[in-house]
Amino acid sequence: MGRTRTYEWQDPGITAAAVGRGSGLELLRDILAGELPPPPIAATLGFTLDEVEHGRAVFSLEPGEEHYNPIGSVHGGVYATLLDSAAGCAVQSLLPAGMGYTSLDLSVKFLRRVTLDTGRVRAVGRVVNSTRQTALAEATLVDEKDRLLAHATSSCLLFPVPAA
C-alpha cells in the first residue's frame, strides 16, 4: 500500500519582500516568531528554524521515510539542505539592513548514516569569517547525543538589496 504525505506552505514572496528592510537577524527572528512565513523548502522537507542569534542559526528535522534514498537511509540532499540552511542563515544573521547574500559553494562531508532510528537531528551553523563582500560559514549536523553526522563549509557572496 502506498504512503502519502500532505503539507502546505505560504507565499514565499512575503518573506522575500522583507529581505533587506531590516537586519538579517530581525528577518530570521520574525520567521522564528511566526510573523513571516518560513521558506517553502522547510515545509517540503519538514524542518524548522529553532534558534537564531548573531552569527549562528540552528535548524532541526525528524527523519522520516519520505527522506529516504533507495538504500534505506536519509538522502544526502536532505543533509545538504539542512547544512546549507544553517550556514546561510548564520551569515544572514550578520547582515545589516539593505544587504542580502547567496551561497557560492557548499562542501559537505557525510560521516554517519541517518535513519528513522537516529531521531531528531540538528544543523548548527556559525560564521567563521566575514568581509564586506564575502562570508565563510560552517555547519554541523548532529544527533540527539551530539554525535557528528555531517559537516559542511559554505562561501557566501554579500550584496546590496535593491530598495522595494
Number of structural units classed as domains: 1
Strand content: 25-35%
Give me the Rg, rounded: 16 Å
Return the CATH architecture. Roll
**SSE string, helix = H, strand = E?**
HHHEEHEEEE
- CATH class identity: Alpha Beta
How many DSSP H or I helices?
A: 4
- Quote the CATH topology: Thiol Ester Dehydrase, Chain A
Measure the end-to-end span: 49 Å
Helical content, roughly? 10-25%
Question: How confident overall, as mean pLDDT?
Answer: 97
Lateral strand order in the biggest sheet: 1-2-4-5-6-3
Largest sheet: 6 strands, antiparallel
State the total count of DSSP E strands.
6
The CATH superfamily bears the name: Hotdog Thioesterase
Q: Find the structural class using helix and strand composition.
A: alpha+beta
- Specify the overall morphology: globular
State the low-pLDDT regions, or none.
none
Structural commentary:
The chain is α+β, with helices and mostly antiparallel strands and 164 residues long. It has one domain: Roll (Thiol Ester Dehydrase, Chain A). It is built from four helices and six strands; from the N terminus they run H-H-H-E-E-H-E-E-E-E. The protein has helices spanning 12-18, 24-32, 40-45, 76-92, and strands at residues 47-53, 56-61, 99-110, 121-130, 134-142, 148-160. Strands 1-2-4-5-6-3 form a six-stranded antiparallel beta sheet. It is globular, with a radius of gyration of 16 Å. The mean pLDDT is 97.
